């Protein structure tokens, strides 16, 4: 009986910590990675704004090249989409929401499976003396207690994929 009381006390403490601790966690998250690519901003922008090039530098396409990928719409315009459906990469899509030529691509990233969510996925382009600084961001709102705890891991999980994608983009563009 004493064991059950201790076990129940531990479970209650964990639940309290989970919910009370979430009060102090951020309501929004942002993961950001950047790289300098030795090409003009117009080249970097036009290449990334055309999803026909995405498979060449996408960290997720490499993870499951046999997934079903589809592109619809006109490159570099709102409504242009890149969708995927696979066993490893799940199901979802990128959609350009707003485009500022040579400066920014504002995209909506929607996951359908294995879980549903919708967040910002943006790319920014800045001229520097060394070339174009390309910054890729993933940002959104933590809508639940679980989201707040999960967002603590996004930088490690998503950040490494974004860096891998930017490294591959640099290789592609500097060929």
What's the shape?
elongated
Question: How confident overall, as mean pLDDT?
Answer: 88
Pick out the low-confidence regions. Answer: none
Q: Give the helix tally.
A: 5
What percentage of amino acids are in beta strands? 35-45%
CATH class: Alpha Beta
Task: Record keyword descriptors for this entry.
37% strand; Alpha-D-Glucose-1,6-Bisphosphate, Chain A, domain 4; 175 residues; seven-stranded antiparallel beta sheet; alpha+beta; 5 helices; 38% helix
Can you describe this structure?
This protein has 175 residues and is α+β, with helices and mostly antiparallel strands. The protein has one domain (29-173): Alpha-D-Glucose-1,6-Bisphosphate, Chain A, domain 4 (2-Layer Sandwich). The protein is 38% helix and 37% strand. The protein is built from five helices and seven strands. It has helices at residues 2-22, 41-48, 54-57, 59-63, 145-173; strands at residues 28-37, 68-72, 81-86, 90-100, 104-113, 117-128, 131-141. Strands 1-7-6-5-4-3-2 form a seven-stranded antiparallel β-sheet. β4 and β5 form a beta hairpin. It is elongated and about 70 Å long. The model has no long low-confidence stretch (mean pLDDT 88).
